[in-house]
Amino acid sequence: xxxxxxxxxxxxxxxxxxxxxxxxxxxxxxxxxxxxxxxxxxxxxxxxxxxxxxxxxxxxxxxxxxxxxxxxxxxxxxxxxxxxxxxxxxxxxxxxxxxxxxxxxxxxxxxxxxxxxxxxxxxxxxxxxxxxxxxxxxxxxxxxxxxxxxxxxxxxxxxxxxxxxxxxxxxxxxxxxxxxxxxxxxxxxxxxxxxxxxxxxxxxxxxxxxxxxxxxxxxxxxxxxxxxxxxxxxxxxxxxxxxxxxxxxxxxxxxxxxxxxxxxxxxxxxxxxxxxxxxxxxxxxxxxxxxxxxxxxxxxxxxxxxxxxxxxxxxxxxxxxxxxxxxxxxxxxxxxxxxxxxxxxxxxxxxxxxxxxxxxxxxxxxxxxxxxxxxxxxxxxxxxxxxxxxxxxxxxxxxxxxxxxxxxxxxxxxxxxxxxxxxxxxxxxxxxxxxxxxxxxxxxxxxxxxxxxxxxxxxxxxxxxxxxxxxxxxxxxxxxxxxxxxxxxxxxxxxxxxxxxxxxxxxxxxxxxxxxxxxxxxxxxxxxxxxxxxxxxxxxxxxxxxxxxxxxxxxxxxxxxxxxxxxxxxxxxxxxxxxxxxxxxxxxxxxxxxxxxxxxxxxxxxxxxxxxxxxxxxxxxxxxxxxxxxxxxxxxxxxxxxxxxxxxxxxxxxxxxxxxxxxxxxxxxxxxxxxxxxxxxxxxxxxxxxxxxxxxxxxxxxxxxxxxxxxxxxxxxxxxxxxxxxxxxxxxxxxxxxxxxxxxxxxxxxxxxxxxxxxxxxxxxxxxxxxxxxxxxxxxxxxxxxxxxxxxxxxxxxxxxxxxxxxxxxxxxxxxxxxxxxxxxxxxxxxxxxxxxxxxxxxxxxxxxxxxxxxxxxxxxxxxxxxxxxxxxxxxxxxxxxxxxxxxxxxxxxxxxxxxxxxxxxxxxxxxxxxxxxxxxxxxxxxxxxxxxxxxxxxxxxxxxxxxxxxxxxxxxxxxxxxxxxxxxxxxxxxxxxxxxxxxxxxxxxxxxxxxxxxxxxxxxxxxxxxxxxxxxxxxxxxxxxxxxxxxxxxxxxxxxxxxxxxxxxxxxxxxxxxxxxxxxxxxxxxxxxxxxxxxxxxxxxxxxxxxxxxxxxxxxxxxxxxxxxxxxxxxxxxxxxxxxxxxxxxxxxxxxxxxxxxxxxxxxxxxxxxxxxxxxxxxxxxxxxxxxxxxxxxxxxxxxxxxxxxxxxxxxxxxxxxxxxxxxxxxxxxxxxxxxxxxxxxxxxxxxxxxxxxxxxxxxxxxxxxxxxxxxxxxxxxxxxxxxxxxxxxxxxxxxxxxxxxxx
Length: 1289
Hints:
Layout: H1 34-49, H2 59-70, H3 77-101, H4 111-146, H5 175-188, H6 194-197, H7 205-220, H8 222-226, H9 228-244, H10 248-259, H11 265-280, H12 284-294, H13 298-307, H14 315-328, H15 330-335, H16 341-344, H17 349-366, H18 377-397, H19 403-418, H20 427-437, H21 443-458, H22 468-485, H23 496-499, H24 535-549, H25 563-589, H26 591-597, H27 603-618, H28 624-629, H29 640-655, H30 660-668, H31 676-691, H32 700-708, H33 726-749, H34 752-756, H35 758-765, H36 773-786, H37 799-803, H38 810-824, H39 828-845, H40 864-912, H41 919-930, H42 932-952, H43 958-971, H44 980-996, H45 998-1012, H46 1019-1035, H47 1037-1040, H48 1044-1048, H49 1056-1071, H50 1081-1086, H51 1093-1107, H52 1116-1129, H53 1136-1147, H54 1153-1166, H55 1173-1185, H56 1190-1198, H57 1210-1224, H58 1231-1264, H59 1279-1288
Helix pairs in contact: 1-2, 1-3, 2-4, 3-4, 3-5, 4-5, 4-7, 5-9, 7-9, 9-10, 9-11, 10-12, 11-12, 11-14, 14-17, 17-18, 17-19, 19-21, 20-21, 20-25, 21-27, 22-25, 24-25, 26-27, 27-29, 29-31, 30-32, 30-33, 31-33, 33-36, 35-36, 36-38, 38-39, 38-40, 39-40, 40-42, 40-44, 43-44, 44-45, 44-46, ...
Keywords: Cell cycle, Cell division, Chromosome, Coiled coil, DNA condensation, Mitosis, Nucleus
Subcellular location: Chromosome; Nucleus
Main location: nucleus
């Protein structure tokens, strides 16, 4: 009796459900002892292995195999291995026999005998496929159950592969290896001709189902798909069942259903489709799979997208499959890409992104740039049109609503560029598209756009250098040549056919800032005249671009018959240069956006912007070096990756691949025209270059080259400077300044470098020939850093620094020179006193003779310039004396800490060696542990430091005797009429003297505050006063605290520099917890709308940093909002638009629900004390900016009575209606809330109508009584209401 495959294995026990062969006397291995199971299994395996393959359908053998597989979980590992081996071997033999049987037989053979043999083969084939399928399902279920408990050995917690050849391999069950063996055996069935075996009937459907079911099980197993033998065997079975035996719909239906569950199937199914197409030359399986996933309603995918928060199934798997399928079988997908068109308009962004990726694969693989020789013109044209439509789709998708899809579009364009598949006609269009995306709100899109621009630069067809000026000059030259050879106007605009060969016209300018085009405008991506020729002009343009890249841009003149060819070449060259110039200008125009991205909060923006700026500099883009300068301050970033990127960029741009001398000159060029902030950043970069691990980037060879650049015959860059023209003398001097500044930066990190070549530094830096202030300043700074070295120079070597005090550029040089003297001299106070006496003598010597600098006499005939020098050095000496005391105290503490550490280590070593401490030593140990000695030493040191500070202004000292003179001079009203340099030096000296003594500060603090608000004082001097008051607030906070309000008044100063300085000082004090901000923060908030963009940006940065100081759930902005709201509402000069802008910024920092709910309560309560419409609107606007929870909405509805009177204003009523509408869109809302909001809206309308009626009735009553209500003369200046607002908070 022929065996028929049952629906379930248990059906073989029921005679009614098994019409063919069935299990008659099977054994239940679960009921047998272990020894009996082994004995039974041994007999069954002997029957399987020692009989032919057809014996499987014999009743006793069939029952034994059925019993073994049903009791598979009770078998030991060796028995399992032997069972799988036996069944697979017999199936292999059976397949060979079936193949021989299905071959062309002898015409004389008996038909009945042949049919009987075929029937026995069919019956055995059914049995083997059934048993192996059953065994596979049991083993896979067992493997899945054991997977969570398996030790992690790779991705997903599973071992990546089994160890082949391990000892005693048969003693452990290895399903991974046995699965491969089983899969290969089932794949052999595909080699047999089942049509011949089942002739004249088709192959049995139950056989095909069982056979393919096993392949489906293998496909759904991630570990099976990681094994190439198992994967290829499953593909063999599935492809044969689908294409060879007509079960295409069943196979594709099962596979697409499994695709939604198994993530790994995305790539596996794409590989299966490619396998089937290659093996059978039939693409129906790929087409049917694509049709299955495309036939799903987009709404279903949208629902899956929302439900699939983990990103491990559903539409995401389908999306991955679409992208993989396009990569595996691009021509097939290209022919049926229209199936996916409806999903481009769907809301499943992952599927849209996958279609975009698929389009990129199709353009690269399905539409090669060079068609075959056998391609006819019509086919070529059809392919070009199809490719054009795909490119148009990519252009449109750049404006997709989802950021992930927009980023994928940018990545796809980058893939086309790197694969050299981007048509030249789209180069400028894609460049402008990428530049527009630099302003995208998503950092993911911006990163992809930056990477795309980098690819466009790296793969540009215009040459390794992109000099805009050269391109413009060459373009003008070739246009002139073309005009000479062909004065007749061209039929098309220049560059139309050559520059846009794919039928696309040049895209219009994207507008200011490179913003994207409107959805209806293709931005240069629309289809132009389809009849325009493309091939010839494209080839000509390619030839010219190759010539440009080789550096040859000359066209050989041709006469006679070659004139037409020469004209065509000139036209193509003009088009090429036009395209190159447009591309260069587009990239150069994007540099301001790249500079803005350097300040982005997203780390990816900064890193990619730096990379792109480096690429632009390498290609010679105009403005790239200047933009790279803006990168330097990023070395102070909090992110280590950003700091490393800055250092690596400087290394790549200025050091890597260059000779030491050239590298140093390149690094020195960064100091040319650098601001103070850029110099500070460069100093930090140099420090990082010196300490970079594993090897410094600034090596000894570089430092030697830096010294050698200044070690000329006379250590002077220009001995005859006075006789040299200014243009010739400027470059050596500038190089000298930059080199000395670079040496000062190196000395800040490694001061011993200066000590090694100190004579050269003194000779060059303080040279009497050139007297350059900037060079002398840099040399003095290097000397100051030398104070940190272990072996400072002798005092005699510092005489050049003293002589520098008589040079030009006096103030900056004097400041560094005095600092250097205090850092290096063993007795700086004595030497500083001599300097002051000399300056005082110089000032008195010029009394009555006027100032040498033309500033005129100050008072009593004393020259202003000399007196200003004296005051400046006096203040600097006083300040350095204070710093010197702090430095000495710190050095004493460090020495004492080192001594205590050494003593502790010695004591530990003594105790470890077993030594006993004496009684005195024990007492010392106890005192040390209690900190008695350390506290006494600290107290003594603090007392000494206070004594030293008091001696600075002691009457017995030189500074103390002169300080009253400075104070008297500053208090004199004649100060306002003095020379500006003298006035500034005197006030600066007064401020520095105030830093040294609390009593002197208290006596003169009122004067500083008064002068700060005096407009007759220059803005620069007022800036100095602001900085001085900030320093005093840090030095003597209790003295300055009563004057705190005056520190905020410069925020409204008419001079932008004063406002900026005041804002920066207050930011420093507040963020470092040196000043309380409450009470005056509204003045800072007003700077958010400052006329100067830089000041407004600094104010925004202040509030951002203030909000980041949240601690344990507190929010500083939330705590300050009531005060700011009251003050801003009472500000008469603040326009409503400015108020809204400020509050929108501040309320954006309220992120937590409990803070928002509390603010709702406070803002609603304030309506009770307000009677003016402008203030109602301000409060309503603030309410609209908050992110409400359900509790907040309920609070709004409950407090309707508090703001009922304000509903008469249409704007206020509209706000509350909008809030009710937002409540309905709340993500987690209850039905009760929705009903409450409906009722709330009804109450709003009713209350508003009642209020209007009441106002109308009151107006009518007043009219009847002859008392018309007087209009409010100034509704915006509601100071009284503002006070009420403040009390309401």
